[in-house]
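hey can u check if this looks right to u? its 55 residues, i copy pasted from the old doc so theres a chance i mangled smth
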Amino acid sequence: MSVLTGQNVSVSFGGVHALTDVDMTLEARDIRGVIVPNGARKSSLLNVMWWCAST
């Protein structure tokens, strides 16, 4: 069962694109990790997911 699905998620700040066309689906009881270098916009991704889950 899909708990949260995001398709083609994009976030930009001014003219800077933080996320472009990100797809992610979280299933019930999933444990996921985001392993990327510093400055790769992990916080932006988590903030968008949190905002979507809160609405």
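The mean pLDDT is 87.
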